[in-house]
Amino acid sequence: MACEARLTVQAIIKGCPEVFDGVKSLVNVGGGTGTALSLLVKAFPWIRGINFDLPHVVAVAPKSAIPEDKGKLIIVEAVLEEDKEVDKLGFLGLMLDMAMMAHTDKGKERTLKEWSYVLRQSGFTRFNVKPIRAMGDMEVTINEEVRAEIKTWNYVFGYAKIAAVKCAIELGIVDVIENYGSPMPLSELATALRCEPSRLHRIMRFMVHDGIFKQEPINQHTVGFSSTPLSRRLIKGGEKSMADFILLMSSPTCLAPWHSLSARVLETGNNISPFEVANGKDLWSYTEANPDFRELLHNSMGCKARLAVQATIEGYPEVFDGVESLVDVGGGNGTALSLFVKAFPWIRGINFDVPHIVAVAAKSDGIENVGGDMFMSIPNADAAFLMWVLHDWDDEECIKILKKCREAIPEDKGKVIIVEVVLEEDKEGDELGAARLMLDTAMMVITNKGRERTLKEWSYVLRQSGFTRFNVKPIRAVESVIEAYP
Ligand SMILES: C[S@@+](CC[C@H](N)C(=O)[O-])C[C@H]1O[C@@H](n2cnc3c(N)ncnc32)[C@H](O)[C@@H]1O
Predict the structure, then answer these.
(1) Which residue ranges make up each domain of the chain?
(2) Binding site membership of 452 for ligand 1 (Cβ less than 6 Å)
(3) What CA–CA distances, in Å, run from 101 to 8, 107, 152, 200?
(4) C-alpha distances in angstroms, 280 versus 265, 276, 284?
(5) Tens digits of per-residue pLDDT, 194-233?
(6) Whose CA is closest to 452, among 401, 391, 397, 378?
(7) Is 111 exposed, middle or buried (0-12, 13-18, 19+ CB in 10 A)?
(8) Catalytic residue (one of 109, 298, 391, 479)
(9) What is the distance, to the nearest Å, from the Cα of residue 415 to the centroid of all Cα atoms in its chain?
(10) Which of 11, 198, 267, 336 has its CA 20 to 30 A from that of 117?
(11) In this model, does residue 89 exceed pLDDT 70?
């Protein structure tokens, strides 16, 4: 609060000092430990200040600030402007509103209309609003300082986005709006989902601003919500759905480890992954012991597998030329392999994973499920396929797995097909670049020694595993296709 107060008070002192003209005493209602008031009294030394808050708060406040009231009420808060387009500072107000919903009993940020209501109901006859160079200032030129301010607020309330999206998935907001068939009014959405309308309105306002839903006129007086390509990706079971992946990464099991990231980075830190610190077991032991988590993990792997497989089929179908049998090493529930076999029906597939995973994998025509340990031995096939497997392990472990793959494929015409991220640190204008780096950070948090790799790092592990040549084909996905030959 003190950090935020310093920034805002500075903005008031610079942006509208006249607000204190004629004010000799000022009471700061809910003034906390008095940071704002002490800065104001320093800037306007004729003001006598009264810092007013709950007794246990003022008990620990420094004793310097001493204000009092005289005739006007000065409120420093966000003023939401719902219809203003492409307003980055305004969006921060909406994030703050999400935080109010999560952290307070009944708190909220308010629009001008809502401020007008509470002020008039409190007996104030007139009021005016002065934007300052803080969250309320919508007209400010975007320069580096402002960009820094926007980014900082995004770090402060960044979780509001994932929380709102999780809420949209869990409550089925995305499904109900998609199935409605025309713009859906808030009242009907609230009834259909049995939600409290004003809170639902606030969540929807936030998501409309973030581009998840569109707001469209129904008639002269009413607007309704419609789906977008983005909201369709949040529908469970949808063609390009990432819903399960979002639910996985926003689950307490996967969020808690992030608190140990700094400990992980320290030279003196131990070798236990943040996941294990938070959950008592490493990812794979935890997955084996918790069937619900296992199902969510494999459903979310299925989500992103569908996208990567589609991108491979569209972007590089030649990778399967001459491949009559394919072993998917660490193939999980078999989603990827079943899609490949459907697209290239001449391929005989072997879905290979640890026994407790293949035991619950779907049974498909043309696919044999085989349980085992990829560090020990891998079933023979023309080609070995690995997607999102090698990034779970360090170089030494990858080399062991790749050597086993090499043993499983024919020396003359065999190959290993890897679908993984290839980091390109300096590439400009790469829209998925940030996602790849985030995934690398996630590997540091969730796995023991996993990581995403640059081209040079891939070259190292492939050559050390005995592959003489390899090529990389970018596809329309976070991953690329790497083909490596003995
Ligand atoms: C991140 S998941 C990827 C699943 C799938 N390839 C995909 O992209 O959707 C990694 C897979 O490796 C499997 N795995 C882990 N250790 C293994 C081992 N020793 N032998 C075989 N599979 C293993 C896990 O069970 C899991 O299904």
Answers:
(1) 2-58, 79-157, 159-232, 291-485
(2) no
(3) 22, 6, 20, 11
(4) 19, 5, 12
(5) 999 999 999 999 999 999 999 999 988 889 999 999 999 9
(6) 391
(7) middle
(8) 391
(9) 35
(10) 11
(11) no
Which residue is it, tokens 């690398």? 440
Q: How far is the CA of 331 from the centre of ligand 1 (A)?
A: 6
Confidence band of 64 (pLDDT split at 50, 70, 90): very low
Indicate yes or no: pTM above 0.70.
yes
pLDDT range class, residue 429, cuts 50, 70, 90: low
**Residue 461 near residue 405, CB atoms below 8 Å:** no
Q: Which residue type does 60 have?
A: V
Which class is 291-485 in CATH? alpha beta
Best mutation site among 288, 353, 391 for ligand 1, i.e. most ligand atoms within 8 A of its Cβ?
Answer: 353
Dihedrals phi, psi of 461, to nearest 5 degrees = -65, -35
d(CA 69, CA 52): 11
Side chain identity, residue 259: H
Q: Both tokens of residue 241? A: 């759905």
Q: Whose CA is nearest to atom 19 of ligand 1?
A: 373
Assess whether the C-beta atom of 305 lies below 6 angstroms from ligand 1. Answer: yes
Q: Cα–Cα distance between 391 and 445 in angstroms, integer?
A: 13
Q: Which burial class, exposed, middle or buried, applies to 36 when counting CB atoms under 10 A from its CB (0-12, 13-18, 19+)?
A: buried
- The amino acid sitting at 104 is T
> Ligand 1 centroid to 384 CA: how many Å?
13
Per the annotation, the verdict on 420 as an active-site residue is: yes
Ligand 1 centroid to 141 CA: how many Å? Answer: 49
Predicted confidence at residue 87, as pLDDT, reads 60
Whether 419 lines ligand 1, by a CB cut-off of 6 Å, is no
For domain 159-232, the CATH class is: mainly alpha
Cα 93 from Cα 3, distance rounded (Å): 17
CB 228 within 8 Å of CB 211: yes
Q: Is 334 in the pocket of ligand 1 (CB under 6 A)?
A: no
3-29 pLDDT, tens digit each: 677 777 887 887 778 888 888 888 888
